[in-house]
From TrEMBL:
Cross-referenced InterPro entries: ArsR-like_HTH (IPR011991), HTH_ArsR_DNA-bd_dom (IPR001845), HTH_MetalResp_TranReg (IPR051081), WH-like_DNA-bd_sf (IPR036388), WH_DNA-bd_sf (IPR036390)
Keywords: Arsenical resistance, DNA-binding, Transcription, Transcription regulation
The organism of origin for this protein: Vreelandella janggokensis
The organism's place on the tree of life at top rank: Bacteria
Sequence ranges assigned to domain HTH arsR-type in this UniProt record: 9-103
Keyword field contains Transcription: yes
Name under which the protein is recorded: Metalloregulator ArsR/SmtB family transcription factor
SUPFAM superfamilies: Winged helix' DNA-binding domain (SSF46785)
């Protein structure tokens, strides 16, 4: 069985389907996960721009996804980039792939908006 242990409030518990679905049950969190899965790595300013949401709201949802064990973050100077957790179980990745198919039209619009931002150095200079 493909499980991963996560730490929530100092306790190590295996990631299970119920936790994953609870974490993905919010539209903003789901779209954040789908964008990150599609792009492999995004920073907060890119996600706030693409989703047209406030930085505090996006950061709060990213923290919840990290706490669920679905995302990891990596600091690069003043920027924090988010990626899918490398230990994310195969079954959870399949859930995200299915969700990408079910949200294909919206995801396409969001990735177009992201592409319109230019490359990452341009994005940093303009938005972050």
């Amino acid at each position: 069985m493909d499980q991963v242990g996560i730490i929530v409030l100092g306790k190590s518990t295996p990631l299970n389907a119920l936790q994953v679905f609870k974490c993905l049950s919010d539209e903003t969190r789901l779209m954040l996960m789908l964008l990150i899965a599609h792009e492999q790595s995004l920073c907060v300013c890119e996600m706030t721009y693409v989703l047209e949401e406030s930085q505090p709201k996006v950061s709060r949802h990213l923290a919840q996804l990290r706490q669920c064990g679905l995302l990891v973050d990596q600091r690069d100077g003043q920027w924090v980039y988010y990626q899918l957790a490398p230990q994310l179980p195969t079954w959870a990745r399949h859930i995200l792939e299915s969700a990408q198919q079910g949200s294909a039209a919206r995801l396409a619009r969001l990735t177009q908006r992201l592409a319109a931002m230019g490359d990452r150095p341009t994005r940093r200079a303009a938005l972050c």
